[in-house]
Design goal:
alpha/beta; 13 strands; 15% strand
């Protein structure tokens, strides 16, 4: 088969779907990855998928091509240009199967694929994003538009993958999915448990040491978006710093532009106040995860939180909010702590629990690693996706 993987960024496509593309390639399928231009390093990584394994060298390489995409904008002319470019790409390449992920690739990719008569169309809903927050008039307008576009796009899909059941139920409730729609579930993109290997915790505070001496390092990995809970994280950190001045609250992730983003100047102000440490962005989160004691994600809603699964795989406890996606990967008191969303005090209380009982970091980290190996291994997730899409396996 010729399979086309459609993403909204080379970096995220490389980070999240490498294992899936490698398995497709190993099975002898031709894999074409379409992303917007602009990230040479990530594109090189995509082109190199499978080259490290001699068993895969006989298979066709992953090819890469570009298409225009305004990820955050609401300009209909640009979006129509994206759809037209994808239609031309599909007509030229004639893929047997489209696998599209993230909002605009799903909407405009599935529409274009249907027009181009791509035989098999699959979409994966990685999260609902800004359009489904709908807490003011403008967002409600965007929400109604998004519902209509999703309905048109997914009408031609052979199957739609969801990363949690709440999102699937919402899509049915608002009328996006037809009753006959084939709904599939996937554990997010999974996590490469070999790449994100278990790592020893940094030194823990001595038993019985004073609160002001407890140097526990918390890390939030995510794009600079309000919906990742950045304002709550900064407020909770500021509150905890008064009692635990040695505790550190780090933030790692790329700046974002447009709707729902947190201005970099605001992040700098939080840093100047002494509440958080902004670490910038990176292509490899592993050294930063290894240097911390616990991952934090006070998100408003997730598909499945990849950063938390990666932290679990490396043996780190997690502090998350009680929202779709997050509660699917964290069990309160077992591999982390769960708190109410949109509530800095509840978030501070959850992190205080780990500051007051550092021994929990060891137990919860071990439980997280065990869960990641059993349920979130990207190899297992990729295999299930291929089976659900009825993609033939390698002969023999």
């Amino acid at each position: 088969m010729k399979i086309l993987i459609l993403g909204n960024q080379a970096r995220s496509t490389s980070n999240f779907w490498t294992v899936l593309m490698r398995r497709m390639r190993a099975a002898g399928h031709e894999v074409l990855c379409a992303v917007p231009a602009g990230d040479d390093a990530a594109e090189a990584a995509i082109r190199a998928i499978g080259e490290e394994d001699p068993a895969f060298r006989k298979g066709p390489a992953v090819r890469l091509c570009h298409y225009p995409l305004d990820r955050k904008g609401l300009n209909p002319l640009r979006d129509m240009a994206t759809m037209h470019a994808l239609y031309r790409l599909f007509r030229r390449e004639k893929p047997d199967l489209l696998f599209a992920s993230t909002i605009k690739p799903v909407i405009y990719g599935c529409m274009a694929a249907r027009l181009a008569r791509v035989p098999h169309i699959y979409a994966t809903i990685t999260g609902l994003g800004y359009a489904f927050e709908a807490d003011n008039f403008f967002k409600k307008c965007v929400n109604r538009l998004s519902i209509g576009l999703y309905h048109c796009a997914l009408a031609g899909a052979e199957g739609v993958f969801f990363q949690n059941r709440d999102d699937a139920e919402l899509f049915r409730k608002v009328g996006i999915l037809r009753r006959s729609a084939r709904v599939l579930m996937a554990r997010g993109t999974g996590v490469d448990i070999r790449r994100f290997a278990e790592a020893p915790l940094p030194p823990l505070p001595a038993e019985g040491c004073a609160p002001e001496e407890r140097e526990i390092i918390f890390l939030l990995v995510g794009r600079l978006l309000e919906a990742k809970g950045l304002p709550e994280y900064a407020a909770a950190a500021k509150e905890l710093k008064t009692q635990y001045p040695a505790a550190r609250f780090q933030l790692l992730g790329p700046p974002e532009q447009g709707l729902g983003s947190v201005d970099l100047a605001q992040v700098r102000r939080w840093q100047d106040e002494g509440s958080i440490e902004y670490l910038g962005e990176t292509r490899d989160v592993r050294p930063y995860v290894e240097a911390c004691h616990a991952l934090v994600l006070p998100s408003w809603r997730e598909g499945t939180p990849t950063s938390i699964m990666e932290g679990m795989s490396m043996g780190r406890a997690a502090v998350v909010t009680d929202v779709p996606g997050c509660r699917e990967v964290v069990e309160d008191g077992v591999n982390g702590c769960i708190c109410a969303a949109h509530d800095p005090r509840a978030l501070a209380a959850a992190m205080r629990r780990l500051l007051d009982e550092p021994g929990l970091l060891v137990r919860m980290g071990a439980a997280g690693r065990d869960l990641a190996c059993r349920e979130f291994d990207a190899e297992v997730v990729a295999e299930k996706i291929l089976v659900d899409m009825r993609v033939p396996r390698a002969a023999g």
